[in-house]
């Protein structure tokens, strides 16, 4: 989903400093993990962050229930599903608190599309990498419970296909933000670690009660050639990632018509679809009788906290909607 282009960020920028410190202290529980960058903003020590990113990559690949780039949740009785975040640190903080993972060991938390946001460092770099950093730390702390669904923006970043809006190149701003936060030496290594992490992430997450969570779904034009078995391969083929390929169409499609969603769910052998990608002024949308769309990139934002250990109806799912 394209992030908002609002430029009124100065007050929010300063408000987000403290939440970032709070979240990192909660998940890392170690103040020596932090350093001050040249602007006075607290960031994780880059050498430690590299360790977290590499560990997170290993844990993503080793997550129980993973088959290539498809993940079936294991030992899970409920899941909190977030919408696209696009660097919105304050909403990330609320979601983390709502999940309360330490007190709910059979609850999972699914983030999606963390990068390419409207929040900027003083020199103009994109701050959305902070959410990827937080995911890495959380994955190390809760390896069975925390999951990250990439969206079309992660796909664009790792494949080098620029996302442009107006005069802004979100791919370049993201890379510049990493360098601005961590310096040229560590920043380039950290950026390379992101590009290794993104293609390892699952693009579809299944629950035991036949709900599928993914960023979007192929358009009707591409659904005929969409191959669900490609999601189970460990390594993508170039055609998967090109326009019209199975992964590209899964992350970029916007056809939420009832017929298209039903046909997609038939192909995926699922009953319900929870997705993002489409901007929602109310934080969510119910475009048909089989799908709920979530959006956490602005305010209001919405998430779902749903049971996974029993059958559900769409009314059940709608009743599980929460608004930030």
Topology:
Layout lengths: L9 H6 L1 H12 L5 E3 L5 E3 L1 H16 L4 E2 L2 E3 L5 E7 L4 H11 L7 E6 L16 H13 L4 E4 L2 H8 L4 E2 L2 E2 H28 L6 E3 L4 E3 L6 H4 L14 H4 L4 H7 L5 H11 L3 E4 L8 E5 L2 E4 L7 E6 L6 H6 L1 E3 L1
Parallel strand pairs: 4-10, 5-6, 6-7, 11-12, 12-14
Antiparallel strand pairs: 1-2, 3-4, 5-15, 8-9, 10-11, 13-14, 15-16
Helix pairs in contact: 2-5, 3-5, 3-7, 6-7
Query: Strand sequence of the main sheet, in spatial order?
Result: 3-4-10-11-12-14-13
The assigned CATH architecture is 4-Layer Sandwich
N-C termini distance: 19 Å
Mean pLDDT: 90
The biggest beta sheet reads:
7 strands, mixed
SSE series: HHEEHEEEHEHEHEEHEEHHHHEEEEHE
> What is the CATH topology assignment?
Purple Acid Phosphatase, chain A, domain 2
Enumerate how many helices there are, as a single number: 12
Helix content: 25-40%
Q: Low-confidence parts lasting 5 or more residues at pLDDT below 50?
A: 2-32, 36-41
CATH superfamily: Metallo-dependent phosphatases
Tell how many strands the DSSP assignment holds.
16
Radius of gyration: 18 Å
**How many domains?**
1
